[in-house]
Design brief:
By secondary structure, the protein is an alpha+beta fold. 28% of the residues lie in helices and 32% in strands. It has one domain: 3-Layer(aba) Sandwich (Aminopeptidase). A hairpin with a 2-residue loop joins strand 6 and strand 7.
Length: 179
C-alpha cells in the first residue's frame, strides 16, 4: 500500500461495523484496552455519537473501501478546567500495522485538535510492556508523563497504565483562545 492509497477522513456511522471489528480484536488479543469483553456495534455507535456531539474529531483510515484504522480525541476529564486537554485513542487493524497508518491518523488528529484550540493531548498506554506503542507516541512528540503500576488485570497478568503528553499549538505558553 502506498500513502496515496490511504484516505484519512471523518468517521461516518457506516464505518462503525469495521471499527467495532478492529477494536474487538484488540480487546480479545491485546492489552491496549483494559476492556475484557468487546463492545457490540450499538455500544460503539453510542460512544462515537457522544464524542462527535461534543465536537471532538473521530477519524478513520480507509484503503480500498476498507477501514484499516481509526483515531479520535475525547474528554480527558469532565471537570471544566480540563476542557483544553484531550485524551487520544488510535487503533490500527493488526493486519495493516507497521505501514504508517497510525502515524498518518495521529498527524491528522493532532491537526484537528489544534484547529479546535485544544492545548494538551494525553495518551494512555495500556501495559508498560507495550514498547512499540510507547515509542510510536514518543516519535509523534509525546513525552513520558507517568506510570500507574498494576492498575489493570487482563490475560492473567497485572498491567500498568503509561501516560504520555504532548503540547498542541502554543501549549501552555499562552492562555487559551476560547473560554
Amino acid at each position: 500500500m502506498t500513502s496515496s492509497d490511504l484516505v484519512i477522513r471523518f468517521c461516518e456511522e457506516g464505518d462503525l461495523e469495521q471499527v467495532t471489528a478492529i477494536y474487538g480484536r484488540s480487546v480479545l488479543e491485546e492489552t491496549a484496552s483494559f476492556e475484557l469483553t468487546p463492545p457490540d456495534l450499538a455500544e460503539i455507535t453510542r460512544r462515537r455519537a457522544a464524542i462527535v456531539e461534543k465536537g471532538y474529531p473521530y477519524l478513520v483510515a480507509e484503503t480500498d473501501g476498507q477501514i484499516v484504522g481509526y483515531a479520535y480525541a475525547a474528554t480527558y476529564r469532565s471537570r471544566p478546567a480540563y476542557r483544553h486537554t484531550v485524551e487520544t485513542t488510535v487503533y490500527v487493524d493488526p493486519d495493516a500495522q507497521r505501514g504508517g497508518i497510525g502515524r498518518t491518523l495521529m498527524d491528522r488528529l493532532v491537526e484537528e485538535c489544534e484547529t479546535h484550540g485544544f492545548r494538551q493531548m494525553i495518551a494512555v498506554i495500556g501495559d508498560s510492556a507495550h514498547i512499540p506503542s510507547i515509542e510510536f507516541h514518543k516519535a509523534l512528540g509525546f513525552t513520558y508523563a507517568g506510570n500507574l503500576v498494576s492498575v489493570g488485570y487482563k490475560h492473567g497478568k497485572w498491567l500498568d497504565s503509561v501516560f504520555l503528553q504532548r503540547a498542541l499549538g502554543p501549549g501552555d505558553t499562552a492562555p487559551p483562545e476560547r473560554a
